[in-house]
Design brief:
Elements (H helix, E strand, L loop, with lengths): L8 E6 L8 H14 L3 E6 L22 H6 L7 E5 H6 L12 E3 L4 H6 L4 E3 L1
Parallel strand pairs: 1-2, 1-5, 2-3, 3-4
Length: about 120
């Protein structure tokens, strides 16, 4: 996690796959808007959301764009804390080497404590 106090940061939880709904894209948009207004933003990828970080994503059904361009912009907005639930990654047969960006792995048992460290928390 950043050296900054997480109690002054917002946490955006991304739980949905990159294709099939707009939830992931909307969550990333909230993160970018918060950062544009000077808020410290940390992202947590859970469940299907870990798929958003996979390298070499293709377009989804009906030409739905991948998340790579948005993820590439995170650094420009100083969003550099990307937390990933290690169990979610393992359940999908993925490792850190399969991901587009560097992440910090957390365990499922750390999640309850993590959520108490942020206000606000946005779930997508």
């Amino acid at each position: 996690m950043n050296n900054e106090d997480s109690s002054t940061a917002m946490l955006v939880v991304l739980r949905h796959a990159p294709h099939g709904s707009s939830w992931l894209r909307e969550g990333l948009d909230v993160a970018l808007v918060g950062a544009a207004f000077g808020q410290t933003v940390n992202l947590l990828f859970l469940g299907e959301g870990v798929q958003a970080l996979m390298k070499d994503q293709q377009k989804g059904p009906l030409g739905q764009k991948g998340t790579h361009p948005t993820l590439d912009m995170l650094a420009m907005y100083d969003i550099d804390t990307l937390l990933v639930d290690a169990d979610s990654l393992a359940q999908r047969g993925l490792t850190e080497a399969d991901l587009q960006l560097p992440v910090t792995l957390i365990t499922t048992s750390q999640l309850p404590f993590l959520f108490t460290q942020y206000a606000p928390v946005f779930n997508f």
